[in-house]
Design brief:
This protein is an alpha/beta fold. It is built from 15 helices and 10 strands.
Length: 334
């Protein structure tokens, strides 16, 4: 069982971050397999053939992508923790990938082969400059297949961070980490269980842990940079709901409180800021703010300040009105 151990200082400095590199890595793995994620199906259908054609033309690219999509050990030189927080840029993440020595790349790839559930050889590892070639593949994939979709993806990732930041402010880290993935869980007061697989504990440095959401539902891995920098990459919540554009509010609820307010109340099944709601509905901040003010005055939503943002969530009364609250024992429809 792999445990991540945090001091009180490391815990207080832990934070969220975004990683275009992690998003690209996860997307590569999606494109070489049958797609089971409804939110990504339209994107997958548009890009898969072109991506596979590039792999067919480059044995190095095909070998690398097939390996990273079928191993329990992702190569360390492509899984470094992001350094730019929520504003991490791909260029900054690719610089150390390109600078990786051939010896370091080979060692990482050999470890990935040893932990793969498929048989691999490294016959495609020819020539030299493997770090730079890897960085080139990631840059191509980002620019050709992800960049145009990034605003949509980033909105989903920021929504997840807002939700968890609200939980963190209200309840602390254990609640914020709930359902981050199937394996991870808070253990005691100072440790996170990352995996049930055997392995040594990691001690997180005083700068704290990073938590990095990605849009692929199977994306869970630990990014490490010795001696003590760690990032937990996890699948963002809510992509299934985004796939269908959310559920249309019930007609009765619309008649009761109005179409706009009903839509906002339904959407707040997942907490969000007013900016995120405005972006989701394609409305002005003033319009969304007016709806939120009425819902807040009615006791249906509440806001929690997280830094400079206010994250809104439904109250118990809001859940009940939206149809998601518990039914009182003995109550019957009128």
């Amino acid at each position: 069982m792999v445990m991540l151990r945090l001091s009180s200082m490391a815990l207080s400095r832990s934070r969220f971050a975004l990683s275009p590199l992690a998003e690209t890595l996860g997307s590569m793995c999606v494109l070489v397999k049958p797609c089971s994620d409804p939110w990504l199906v339209p994107w997958y259908d548009r890009h898969r053939d072109a991506f596979l054609a590039v792999l067919d033309a480059d044995p190095f690219a095909r070998g690398l992508v097939e390996l990273i999509s079928s191993t329990k050990y992702l190569p360390g030189y492509i899984t470094l923790p992001p350094s730019g927080g929520m504003r991490t840029a791909l260029d900054d993440e690719l610089a150390p990938v390109a600078a990786a020595s051939d010896a370091a790349v080979r060692a990482d790839l050999e470890a990935a082969v040893a932990h793969s559930w498929k048989r691999h050889d490294l016959g495609w590892l020819t020539g030299r400059g493997w770090g730079a070639r890897t960085a080139g593949l990631f840059r191509y994939t980002w620019e050709a297949h992800i960049l145009a979709d990034w605003p949509r993806r980033r909105a989903l990732l920021e929504r997840d961070v807002s939700h968890r930041a609200g939980l963190l402010a209200a309840y602390g880290w254990p609640r914020a980490l709930q359902q981050m993935n199937r394996r991870s869980a808070w253990v005691g007061a100072d440790a996170i269980r990352f995996s049930h697989q055997p392995g040594p504990d990691r001690v997180v440095g005083e700068d704290g842990m990073l938590f990095v959401p990605v849009c692929v539902t199977s994306g869970t891995w630990l990014a490490e940079e010795p001696p003590a920098r760690y990032a937990l990459v996890y699948p963002a919540r809510g992509s299934a709901a985004e796939a269908t554009g959310g559920l249309r509010p019930a007609r009765a609820l619309e008649r009761l409180i109005g179409t706009g307010r009903a839509a906002v109340l339904q959407e707040l099944e997942r907490p969000a800021t007013s900016t995120e709601l405005a972006r989701h509905f394609g409305q002005s901040l003033g319009t969304v703010g007016g709806h939120l003010a009425v819902l807040r005055d009615a006791g249906l939503v509440t806001g929690t300040r997280v830094g400079r943002r206010v994250v809104y969530r439904r109250t118990g009364a809001g859940d009940a009105l939206a149809g998601d609250g518990p039914v009182q024992e003995g109550a019957e429809p009128m």
